[in-house]
Amino acid sequence: MILVQQLVLGLLVGGLYGLAAAGLSLVFGVLKVLNVAHGELIMLGGYGAFWLWVLLGFDPLLALPLVVAGALAFGVLLYWGLFAFVVRAHEETRIKNSLLIGFGLALATHALAVRLWTADERSITTTYAGAVLSLGPIAIPLVRLASLVLAFALIGALHLLLQRWRWGRAIRATAEDWEAAALTGIDVRRAYLLAFAIGTGLAGAAGTLVSVGYSISPSIGLEWTLKALIVVVLAGLGSMLGTFVGGLVLGLAEAASAFAFGGPYREVVGLVIFLAVLVARPRGLFAR
Amino acid sequence: MLEVEAVEAAYGPFLALSGVTLRVGPGEIVALLGPNGAGKTTLIRCVTGLLVPRAGRIRFGGAGLVGLLPHAIVERGLAVVPEGRRLFGGMTVEENLDLGAFTPHARAGLGRGRERIYEIFPILRERRRQLAGTLSGGQQQMVAIGRALMAAPRLLILDEPSLGLAPRIVETILGVIGEINRGGVSILLVEQNVQAALGLAHRAYILEAGRVAGEGSGPALLQDPHVRRAYLGPLASLPGSRPPLP
Asked: How far is residue A178's CA from residue A193's CA, in Å, rounded to a whole number?
């Protein structure tokens, strides 16, 4: 029963891994830019929701759309300020340049967050934070369950956006072959901007959900970037639904290994999966 | 309609085009011939905005194109079927076609344009929900041409449209190119299949080592001994050994 309980919790956190990874995957797949500060963007989103709750008394459910909107706008600024000139480079040099920029951004954001908000761990504890759904001996924290559902809904919305929206299709076309997309009449730079902004928006959403069901501090960024990277490698690029499933798989695998080998091994399993997938299926488990 | 004037282009220190001048008039089919590495694709990259020439001018409909981004050039009515087709393989045939009408100018006629493509290539209507990457080479070429036509171009550039296709399909494709031209679209055709290209084109340019080595009307170049020796091979020197393409 302890195993089942662990797996349930693993599945719940896995939904957030999926959501965190979706943003990273979108940016990487479209811009060919690896934003290693993605976890820091999640952290900022978490603080956004946290302060909306503390200072203005906003329920996190109400804060979610506000944080996403703010993150979208922040993504636009970040793209214009830091990444717009990276994507002018040849595709092979983009990754190197983006790593430098990403690490710089991550360090600066982390230091700034410590300065502004101290290194304390925080979390949003609403009146319903402790509510639990009991299924026999299994306890499911309601807030985390709601987070999983919301994460899935957001991924579904993103999927529809990329399938149906004119610019969503343009983003997919740019991801496949930016030159062909440009020759088709797509303003590739606009597609980059939109993809980056949406990726940042997703990070904001993930951060909000993390601050409710779990906790945030200025130093969580690297951990979330790592989880997102593992999921991206696990699921491969191209399918947002696949990415979400990859997040769930990672959550379950972590829970199972923590049960089998003890808590400290929780973090190890992700890296083992990371290496195993890179060796065996470098294009990801779900790649066509 | 398209005027290329003394265009020079380089990849790093390597000069790929050293002063190319050519023009495509309204309603014309102009063939661009030449061996691999002559600079044909480089010239197309300059005209479509993927590469900024080092020197020279490119004008389309009287306005300069150098410095414009590719999508802005498409918007002005110049569409290209790139070498190797470059379809979005993970998308359906219909999504590929619809993306061709992405510019504001083309979007108005999206539904009508799509119908027209399905009339030209009926097989694409049957395959419209299929992923473009799973089509045969000939069908992929049809989608590539259809996608470019969706932009409602005044000038259509085709880069090696017959490459790797079965002769029967090549005939279909060339027939369609003629038909598109009769519909009022100028054509710039880059082709390795010299005999076919010269049979179709009103005029042709021969590009060698980054410069124009010859030009003339299609039939005249077909009779030119240098062209015959260099591009048509020994068999072609026997008159009437190959049936002319329709």
From this structure: 13
In a domain, B58, yes or no: yes
pLDDT along chain A (288 residues), means of 10: 91 96 96 95 97 95 96 97 89 88 96 96 89 90 95 97 96 96 96 98 97 94 95 89 95 91 83 86 73
C-alpha distance from B172 to closest chain A C-alpha (Å): 23
- Average pLDDT of span B69-97: 96
Question: Band of the pLDDT at B233, cuts 50, 70, 90?
Answer: low
pTM, rounded to two decimals: 0.92
Are B110 and B158 found together in one domain?
no
Contacts of A217 (CB under 8 A, 6+ apart): A43, A119, A120, A121, A122
pLDDT in tens, B189-216: 998 888 888 889 999 999 999 999 889 8
Q: What is the mean pLDDT of residues B122-146?
A: 96
Residue B3: phi, psi to the nearest 5?
A: -125, 120
Q: Do A288 and B71 touch (CB under 8 A)?
A: no
Taking Cα atoms as reference points, which of A36, A73, A10 lies closest to residue A248? Answer: A10
Question: Which positions in chain A touch B71 (Cβ < 8 Å)?
Answer: 182, 185-188
**Contact B60/B68 with Cβ under 8 angstroms?**
no
pLDDT in tens, B101-127: 999 989 988 889 999 999 999 999 999
For A74, A202, B51, the CA distances from A21, given in Å and listed in that order, are: 19, 9, 34
Q: Which whole number is the average pLDDT over B69-82?
A: 96
Q: How far apart are CA B210 and CA B16, in angstroms?
A: 5
| B194 shares a domain with B179 | yes
Structure tokens at B229: 């020796």
The residue among B152, B171, B201 that closes a domain is B152
Query: Does some domain include residue B82?
Result: no
What are the residue ranges spanned by the domains of chain A? 2-280
Could you tell me if A88 lies within 8 Å of chain B, comparing CB atoms? no
* CB-CB under 8 Å, B75 with A185: yes
Strands B2-11, B55-60: pairing kind = antiparallel
In a domain? residue B132: yes
Q: Does the beta-carbon distance from A288 to B151 stay under 8 Å?
A: no
Q: Cα(B201)–Cα(A159) distance, rounded to whole angstroms?
A: 46
Range of the domain at B100: 88-152
Distance CA A279, CA A139 (A): 37
CATH says A2-280 is which class?
Answer: mainly alpha
In this structure, the answer to whether residues B240 and B123 fall within a common structural domain is no
